Amino acid sequence: MAWIYLIIAGLLEVVWAYSMKKSEGFTLLAPSVITLVTMAASFGLLAVAMRSLPLGTAYTIWTGIGAVGAFILGIIALGEAATPMRLIAAALIVSGLVLMKLSSTH
């Protein structure tokens, strides 16, 4: 279950990052509330996952899902650039996540 909690926590990180962007510096109520609620849920699920997963593994996977997810969402929903260098950088992050998972004994 820890891995499921961790994946959901990472996906919620993408949601709160996107909502934070849409909140325009916390000046818009709805995206600001979504940001705070999903942030709390993401941190809470990360904490639960860390009960049985190593800190380095859990935190790396959580931030990696958030980083790559926000990158993809930025391209799809916000029209951000998908340059070759940015795509290579995202692929390297995903490679690191796979290696981290493969090296975990949990």
TrEMBL record:
Protein name: Guanidinium exporter
Similarity field: Belongs to the drug/metabolite transporter (DMT) superfamily. Small multidrug resistance (SMR) (TC 2.A.7.1) family. Gdx/SugE subfamily.
Membrane topology annotation: Multi-pass membrane protein
Keyword tRNA processing: no
Gene3D superfamilies tied to this protein: 1.10.3730.20
Cellular localization per UniProt: Cell membrane
SUPFAM superfamilies, per the entry: Multidrug resistance efflux transporter EmrE
Organism lineage: Bacteria, Pseudomonadati, Pseudomonadota, Alphaproteobacteria, Rhodobacterales
Primary location class: membrane
Residues spanning the membrane: 27-49, 61-79, 85-102
Keywords of the record: Cell membrane, Membrane, Transmembrane, Transmembrane helix, Transport
PANTHER family documented for this protein: GUANIDINIUM EXPORTER, SMR FAMILY PROTON-DEPENDENT DRUG EFFLUX TRANSPORTER SUGE
One matching Pfam family: Multi_Drug_Res
Gene of this entry: sugE
InterPro entries: EmrE-like, Small_drug/metabolite_transptr, Small_multidrug_res
